[in-house]
Task: inverse folding
């Protein structure tokens, strides 16, 4: 017998649809790719800089669908600009809207200035892009990109949905997933071009570090969530979660990168690319399963009571 | 320029605060007539929710929602009493709690949700863009968004307004006005609290030992969301009425959550810098 009023849920089921996890995934990927590219510019060799510079393009491209996705999910898309009528960082949704609005132009400016520096962008546009203060864009972009990558998990956790709110680690988990997918996207685009093996090894190592971190945080998240994690770990979303997000999205790429660590040339390129694709797909699977399982968690009366017992 | 911006974004000066108004819902007086549900629907011109039969006692309303702002619960309790069985019915008219620290209001990114001059929580319909964040934020599952394609205020968030329009004209909210047993009492929050404490004393004296108040400043349920401007006298544990023991305010743990997120980001940046800097 239910502890509460019949078996009625205590909290309301979120009304959001697939656009939200898709946006979280792309926004996180953009932030992660930008950070990886910026790290290579500042700490890497000349080869690293050339190879990872494409990360700026990846970030800019991933940001293009973000705003449309976010707007499409609103009940009144025609009023999307009301998000920006006030500045209220207390609301993660407001903070995210401002972050997306400011990160997008920064990422585009930095991508353009990179294109100009490699000779891809010429003529008057190239001259204009050369005016972008790269250091400043890098610093601002890193802060904004990390915020975009990290706020989404905190947003879901700033609710009363047991699966999202019980553990304190969802923000960290989404951040790790974003960094893994972002660095994987940089590896993927680098592997398609002529880059030295050493550079590819380094990029793959960064991606593996993110994936390993993601595994560790996921473990902590599941342990902390206790029974509230059931809609994710058992039932309808168990398969896509365990096989997709964890198996194909974290374990497999870690394994592939290990094998690739001892390979060179073509074999290295194919292995790292395959691993990167897995990581990127796994990141989407993680967002999607946690998001959708959260809706089922909302119906879990017992988990809601547990959450509200302190 | 600033004036033009404020006009464009519908930003107005808030009215000066007045005495806080609220509801004291004394469930020991409720007879389950649902006059409040009907009066609310009628005054606020809320559409019907269909004719579903839930099979759960006389409750065919089920939940509070975007178009249901009062909901009468029917709790059937049976307990063995010697050889026979004793039945009792607990009835409770549920409503938005108008929390002192409202999770919905804090979540709202547009500023559509505001605290009115009466201390109540109100959704400004011309501001809400239907982002839906308030919906899972509310610890009581009160506020909801109407479907994007519907006939009633499509795509925006709705909940009890404590009859803001009636308050503006010094009128009692429709539900309290229609309640035939004074189970729903409307008034100054401070005065209602005094009345509630007195009533609780009365019930305890009569042997209703499980009677309790829910949403008073001294109650543990006020630990995070603060005292409720719409509070209750209950005859059993809060959970029996689907009320959480200690309703959570998401803000309380937000810094810690951002902290973990930032730690992961900074840790990754350090590892990345080390890996890239270690050139062979
Ligand atoms: S009960 Fe829910 S909807 Fe009502 S004020 Fe509190 S948080 Fe907001
Ligand atoms: S749905 Fe409307 S009222 Fe609710 S948080 Fe979003 S903008 Fe605010």
Result:
């Amino acid at each position: 017998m239910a502890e509460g009023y019949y078996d009625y849920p205590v909290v309301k089921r979120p009304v959001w649809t697939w656009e939200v996890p898709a946006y979280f995934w792309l926004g996180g990927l953009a932030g992660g790719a930008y950070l990886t590219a910026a790290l290579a510019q500042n700490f890497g060799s000349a080869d690293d800089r050339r190879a990872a510079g494409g990360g700026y393009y990846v970030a800019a491209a991933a940001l293009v669908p973000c705003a449309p996705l976010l707007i499409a999910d609103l009940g009144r898309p025609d009023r999307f600009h009301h998000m920006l009528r006030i500045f209220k960082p207390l609301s993660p949704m407001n903070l995210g809207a401002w972050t997306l609005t400011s990160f997008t132009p920064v990422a585009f400016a930095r991508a353009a200035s990179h294109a100009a520096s490699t000779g891809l962008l010429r003529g008057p546009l190239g001259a204009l892009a050369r005016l972008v203060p790269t250091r400043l864009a890098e610093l601002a972009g890193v802060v904004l990109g990390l915020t975009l990558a990290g706020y989404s998990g905190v947003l879901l956790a700033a609710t009363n949905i047991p699966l999202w709110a019980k553990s304190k680690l969802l923000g960290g988990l989404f951040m790790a997933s974003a960094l893994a997918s972002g660095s994987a996207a940089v590896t993927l685009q680098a592997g398609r071009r002529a880059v030295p093996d050493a550079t590819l090894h380094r990029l793959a190592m960064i991606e593996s570090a993110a994936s390993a971190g993601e595994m560790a945080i996921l473990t902590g998240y599941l342990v902390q969530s206790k029974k509230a994690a059931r809609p994710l770990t058992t039932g309808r979303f168990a398969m896509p979660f365990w096989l997709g997000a964890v198996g194909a999205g974290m374990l497999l790429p870690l394994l592939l990168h290990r094998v690739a660590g001892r390979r060179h040339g073509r074999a290295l390129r194919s292995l790292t690319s395959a691993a990167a694709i897995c990581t990127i797909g796994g990141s989407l699977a993680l967002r999607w399963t946690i998001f959708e399982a959260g809706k089922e968690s909302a119906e879990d009366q017992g988990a809601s009571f547990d959450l509200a017992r302190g | 320029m600033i004036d033009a911006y404020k006009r464009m974004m519908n930003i107005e000066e808030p009215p000066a605060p007045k005495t806080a108004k609220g509801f004291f819902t004394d469930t020991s007086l409720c007879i389950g007539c649902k006059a409040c549900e009907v009066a609310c629907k009628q005054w606020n011109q809320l559409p019907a929710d269909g004719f579903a039969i839930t099979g759960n006692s006389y409750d065919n309303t089920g939940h509070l929602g975007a178009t249901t702002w009062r909901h009468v619960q029917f709790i059937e309790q049976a307990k063995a009493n010697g050889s026979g069985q004793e039945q009792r019915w607990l009835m409770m008219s549920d409503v938005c709690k108008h929390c002192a620290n409202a999770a919905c209001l804090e979540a709202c990114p547009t500023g559509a949700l505001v605290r009115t001059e009466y201390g109540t929580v109100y959704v400004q319909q011309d501001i809400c863009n239907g982002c839906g964040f308030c919906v899972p934020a509310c610890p009581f599952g009160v506020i909801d968004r109407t479907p994007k394609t519907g006939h009633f205020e499509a795509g925006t968030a709705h909940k009890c307004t404590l009859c803001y329009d009636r308050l503006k004209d010094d009128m009692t909210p429709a539900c309290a006005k229609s309640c035939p047993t004074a189970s729903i009492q409307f008034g100054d929050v401070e005065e209602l609290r005094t009345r509630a404490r007195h009533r609780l004393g009365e019930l305890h004296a009569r042997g209703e030992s499980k009677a309790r108040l829910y949403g008073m400043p001294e109650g543990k349920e006020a630990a995070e969301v603060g005292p409720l401007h719409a509070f209750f006298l209950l005859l059993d544990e809060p959970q029996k009425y689907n009320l959480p023991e200690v309703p959570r305010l998401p803000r309380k743990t937000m810094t810690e959550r951002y902290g973990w997120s930032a730690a992961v980001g900074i840790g990754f940046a350090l590892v990345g810098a080390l890996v890239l800097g270690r050139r062979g």
About this structure: The longest helix of chain B spans residues 254-277. Residues B 96-99, 102-104, 121, 138, 140, 142-143, 159 surround iron/sulfur cluster (ligand 1) (CB under 6 Å).
